User: Fold these one by one.
Assistant:
Number 1:
Amino acid sequence: MKKDVSSENLKSNLTNLKSLKSISNNSRNSIESEQGSLTLSLIEEGKVKIYSYFGKISKKLPVFYNPIMKDNRTLTILVLKALGKNRLKIALPLAASGIRGIRILKELPSEYVDGIFFNDLNPKALEIINRNLELNNIRLLSEKIKLSNEDARLFLLKNKPFDYIDIDPFGTPNPFLDSAISSLKNNAILAVTATDTAPLCGTYKNACIRKYWSIPLHNYLMNEMGLRILIRKVQLVGLNYDFALLPIFSYAKDHYFRIFFKAVKSKQKATEIFNQHKELYFIDYQTLLSLDQKTLDQKTREKINSAKTGSKSNIFFVDNLFEFNPCLVGLLRNDKDKVKVIKFGPLWTGHLYDVEIVKTMLEHSQEYGESLQKFLKIILEEAKLNILGFYDIHILSKALKKNPPKKSELIKKLREESFLASETHFNSTAIKTNAALNEILKFF
């Protein structure tokens, strides 16, 4: 039987309205003295205004607000606009100041949101959310809105299922993945943020192995590979519930990784997801370039080429490369000063984007400024290519001992030769292309 939650919502919100008195317009002085030098500041973002604490970004803030994550929240709005789904039941288990939810209410068409659940374990956050809802003329007694002060995991399990869940923690999302995924409807959207990029990018290798069950890569490819490691970890939790979690929009920006998944309940599709988790080998450019000077038989050369992930010439699938020719491992490792071959993963080797969703996001992005539009244009070009990895022009030129070509000119020349090529948001000095290394070398 379907629960009638409207009366529960009204009771909950009436209770929370009482706490609003403690943060009325006359209470700022008491807040200032309690928190020392921290004061509530009025902040404008998107189409809303909120009150929140301003200070050093850390867990010590009375209520967490990070201005650097503005684009994170704007991209959430753009993804939901691009999906165009009506009557969404939305969960914000780590709501903090409430800004993400308030922007959803103010910037999406009203028919898109059937109900939005603000939750935070911090009671001060609930006070701020109440005040911010009032500041933006959002009716606190609306049946659309429910506020709660619970552990995020318990909150999700008590109020499930949801059409959209946003996991945006300070640090790793790991503690919330199981409860979030088990609280999704079929074809729901799960958004996941990770700000602990140091382990995922290989700065703390053992931490990545412990927390994300994968060996990271610590070089110029680390942002893309770290994102793919995170995707796999979330997908593995989804497999426990026969959910295929398909990335529809993924990116690395500032100090965080962010992925939007479509959750499809299907044992077959879940198995297909698992089959796209691979271990890989990385070979540096200098070693790869020297291979042409080594004595390799034609069969070995052909197998090396067939092992390449797409046309990316220095990333190889483990199963297809070294097992067939143990001598090749010795050949590439025969250097006392450098490790020539680096094994990493497993990670997600499939697509990172739904091209049509990115196109629609770009169409809706004009009101949010040129910087975000440029970011989305680059991602759209990447999405059309659907290639794992990229070439760093500066590192390649160093291996060649030549000056690097201009990135825009190199992309233009590759396209003139009928290759696919684009910039990549993962690395400002790199390109994605389906051209093989020997084709790229013609333009150096």
Note: The CA atoms of residues 23 and 127 lie 7 Å apart.
Number 2:
Amino acid sequence: MPPYIKNSIKKLAMPIFVKKRLREWKGIPDIVLIENTNHCNAKCVMCPHGKMKRKKGTMSFDLYKHIIDECVNLGIQRIQITGTGEPLLDPLLFERIRYAKNADIKEVNIFSNASLLNHENQELLLTSGVDLIFLSIDGFTSESYENIRVGLSFEVVKENVLSLLRGKKSKGNYKPIIIVGGLRVKGDASAFLKNNFCEEINKLSDGIWVGEHGDVHDWSGNVEGIHYRRVPWYNLPCRRLWDALSILWDGRVDLCCIDYEGTVNLGNIEKQSIRELWNEQRIKEVRGYHLNKQFEKIEICKNCFERPSWIPKNIERILDDF
């Protein structure tokens, strides 16, 4: 089925799933995004980290435990330990994962650029209990990769990724699920198709996602030079406002993961509960704007076209397989 037909079907179906999801909404987030640190060791061309003005730091373990304990009490089953930074720069990352799993959080996931996945960190990660690891790689050749992920070494990352995947296979474990994703840049097509690295990733990983430059969002217009293809349902409410609570390393709660500066402050997890934060007046106001298609009322939403699909993943997979 041609992509334009698939997207047309999704666009027609999406409002139905929006209404269904809102009817079933329980008043608590499905997932809590925890920024363990906003330090990063790369200067990626598609990331606003280099222009970020907010203070850099790492979340205290006491604050982290407070968040996890509250998630457990509310029945929240999913957390992501990654924000606007590289999570492996946090020396407490593995302890954080273990704490969450010991507290019976069902899904703990992280996103990493894989540059710090040396043998010691690979072993710690594979035995931490983490459920999902998304490794971000772009370019798939040394030249294209290092032009995008400035400051990182393609050869180091390549060896780290393959070593982690082989390490998981040697243990015979189902978990963690490891997804490798990134961009195939213009002019890189033949190299990608013949690339032994990609072939090996495809054999060893649990999934590989390869996008084009147009698949990368521009952080609500805050990164220049990115020509983002709008999703066909960009004028529908953003699902994140009903699904994902985003907590910065210092305890402040921002609107979503795209709000890297924390410009829309919803409160502080040290002073308010998750339920209070998720149902306070400011976020209700933003949800109302989205439901009424008044995206221009919120600066971070006005130029944002990174709207996740409301269609359940199992149904979306069926459509994508046609």
Note: The mean pLDDT is 86.
